[in-house]
Amino acid sequence: MKEGIDALVLEGTENTGDYGVTEGWFQQAIAGMFYILSPLYVSKEILVDFAELQGADVYFTRESDAEVLRNAPFTMRVISASLYFLLLPSSVIVGLITGDYLAGAGFLAVSFSVPVLLLRLYNMEFSSGDQNRDEIMAQKIAEATEENDTVLAVVGAGHADGIIDALPNTLDISYHPPEYSRISKEHLKEILIPLFQMFSLLLTLYLAILWVIVTLVSFL
Fold it and tell me: Residue 25: helix, strand or coil by DSSP?
């Protein structure tokens, strides 16, 4: 990027998007998941600022997170929604009945993450064409190359191979993998403190939910 680029493509959302009545659960799950994972999140704003300083165009791979839900088939949406509405109340029940707040917090984390990750996995591994996440991102990159000579695309390592396979053969592609793997000592040292922060956020959120529910029930 220091050598100069004409366009920047970022894996992520361009805006928050509008959710329909039946999509509210997914919005809640996304919000909860990203709240818990926020200590691990690295803002891309510095990349956007750097690109704009160079006069480069900035593209995002999706307009909103709602696309993850809408690109999945109806059956997968029903399964994911059912998991959410089963696991979320279960997390509350575990805490109220057994008093095991750690287990309840674990259920809460699973209720947020599993339905969302299930949809993302399906869209990446089993969908095709305009519904496949790797192909969608490859299309965004290809579109950027139509008007720009040098394009930098920053995507998750899990998408890299699929995107490269889906890109036109006419492009001159240079792939730069992560500096070290997810299971390396360097990576584990880097995320140790964020993992503790994640656990703190999760437990705080869970206890807050229990307090609200107990307070509401006491008024009834």
Answer: helix
